[in-house]
Specification:
By secondary structure, the chain is mainly β. The protein has a domain of 37 residues. The chain has 1 helix and 3 strands; from the N terminus they run βββα. A 3-stranded antiparallel sheet has the order 2-1-3, with no helix packed on it. A hairpin with a 5-residue loop joins β1 and β2. The two termini are 44 Å apart.
Length: 82
């Protein structure tokens, strides 16, 4: 669930709330009850560069301990045709 940042128009306090994307934006400050506005943020996306779940490297070394041409270390060549 994404986290949204809000700023109060009355007291100026900032706070975050975890909300579903389909939830309506908050309207009131939990501190003073004044109107709030949701701020636009850059997000905190990530890129998973590890080899594992749902990703195959094209080399059997990780799964069998040997490359497709029988070596015990990467050879840097494209995958052999089997």
């Amino acid at each position: 669930m994404p986290t949204y940042e809000y700023e109060c128009n009355g007291c100026g306090s900032r706070f975050e709330r975890e909300q579903a994307m389909t939830d309506a934006p908050l309207q009131q400050c939990p501190e003073c009850g004044a109107k709030v506005r949701r701020l636009v943020s850059g997000g905190t996306g990530f890129i998973n560069k590890s080899i594992g779940h749902g990703h195959t490297s094209g080399c059997s070394l990780e799964t069998t301990g040997k490359t497709c041409c029988g070596r015990a270390e990467r050879c840097g060549a494209p995958r052999c045709e089997e």
